[in-house]
């Protein structure tokens, strides 16, 4: 494809897609005919209203004891009912708070310390979404907020196949495409972190979402087996071999226990085989080391990027905290996000395929071991999110009390 042909093709596509709310960066031509078909089928068939998810989140809520903690106005939902009564667990909001307090960090904590948004060199949000974390809901929310706050929203068209990592030239070509997008805007794709500075390009505002890595993998397992998703994947990739009955009928627990199907073997020595095990990959980047599953090195690189590069890495496991942190740290794009989310909630609860998330004890024990680093990174992201939240709540409280003082003076 020559560059000029590519450009004019792109412009044509954009004209066509002006009719859609979402404009897309084009991918190879053969996928274009499927755009409308896929878009329609996805919208209709994946539109499973997830009361189930809702009630699961409710179940997982842990009511916090009134304490100095709630005096700070900190509230939120927690990932696991197991945390009830274990409020010193650092992987909860309360535990993170207690940790900051007991180590003396709370006194000096400010929102500015944890704010990477000012490092961005253009008004451009890059949501390089992880798989099966509820990223479609965030994509919808971005679209909604874009219409409200006047920023454009783009997403890629899904290619039939995609490389796991880009080489330097491919990464450069992709980064150039992103640079062409107008500002302010937001772009969404399952893709790896890119060092734009290394390409002499301005840095975006990076965001992402996480979910417990084991839950994420179970979700991916059943998602691939959902009849509509499976049909769509055949449509996208007609050369894909069709699966047998066992593929659809085997439970996740059995699959892991049997260790026959490649997507159920979680061994760090196996090369990447197109499943969705790798929590770290999109946060780590396009280096080869990032493709290693449950790798200490990939985890360390990903942590560095989360801490220094990402404005917010949220989680729908902590919906309210995530929305509050997005509002506070990226106000140009997320002002009023909480209010908008709860006023149009049905619009954002999409693409969930209800499934059995139960884990047998032996399977759980095996997975916890195989996913140790991936889980560590997940907790790292959650702690940082809690810390950002505590920092803004603390700021609000400090502001409130200083304005009270001012009045009384
Ligand atoms: C989250 O916020 C909504 C809207 O403000 C509220 O109704 C809900 O109770 C909150 N959930 C939790 C767990 O705090
Ligand atoms: C990004 O690239 C620049 C220039 O090559 C380098 O100085 C910087 O350390 C890189 N950042 C990260 C997080 O790797």
Note down, in words, how this protein is organized.
The protein is of the alpha/beta class and 409 residues long. The protein has one domain: P-loop containing nucleotide triphosphate hydrolases (Rossmann fold, 3-Layer(aba) Sandwich). It is built from 20 helices and six strands. The protein has a six-stranded parallel sheet with strand order 1-3-4-2-5-6. The longest helix has 37 residues. 33% of the residues are buried. The N terminus is likely disordered. It binds 2-acetamido-2-deoxy-beta-D-glucopyranose (2 copies). GO terms for molecular function: sulfotransferase activity. Belongs to the sulfotransferase 3 family.
Task: Summarize, please.
This protein is an alpha/beta fold and 409 residues long. It is built from 20 helices and 6 strands.
